[in-house]
Design brief:
This is Large ribosomal subunit protein uL22c. The chain is an alpha+beta fold. The chain contains five helices and five strands, in the order αβαααββββα. Helix 3 packs antiparallel against helix 4. Strand 3 and strand 4 form a beta hairpin. The strands form two sheets. Strands 1-5-2 form a three-stranded antiparallel beta sheet. A two-stranded antiparallel ribbon has the order 3-4. Helices cover about 45% and strands about 30% of the residues.
Length: about 140
């Protein structure tokens, strides 16, 4: 049985993906930063990434910014309504080099790379209302 989807339901499922491949960094180091931004709003994420002292925060910042620009330009979504629904880091291929050593020998150097995927979704009005209520409660305590 095929179910037809109304235009309002299509707008509800809009999501934007951005993928950065072969970033010369360990996946473990990038996950440390990704874990901090998962589930946060788009604007809050940009502020957090700007102030983080880690080297991994700059490529993630560029990727999140690019995903937000794609959402506003290609799909017409408002950046204030976006949040990071999914963020994952996968290990990539190793860049293998050889470093010359003493007595004509060589030493292999393996530089890890990783692939970063960010998915932005539009937050519904009910979810935003629930978040503001939760925030008010936390500030009053």
């Amino acid at each position: 049985m095929i179910k037809s989807i109304s235009p309002t339901e299509v707008r509800a499922f809009k999501e934007v993906r951005a993928l950065a491949q072969y970033i010369c960094m360990s996946a473990h180091k990038v996950r440390r930063v990704i874990d901090q931004i998962r589930g946060r709003s788009y604007q809050e994420t940009l502020m957090i990434l700007e102030l983080m002292p880690y080297r991994a925060s700059y490529p993630i910042f560029k990727l999140v910014y690019s995903a937000g620009a794609n959402a506003s330009h290609n799909m017409g979504l408002n950046e204030a309504d976006l949040f990071i629904s999914q963020a994952e880091v996968n290990g990539g291929a190793f860049v293998k080099k050889f470093k010359p050593r003493a007595r004509g020998r060589s030493y292999p150097i393996k530089r890890p790379t990783c692939h970063i995927t960010i998915v932005l979704k539009k937050r519904s009005k009910e979810e935003r209302r629930d978040l503001t209520k939760k925030k008010k409660r936390t500030f009053l305590l």
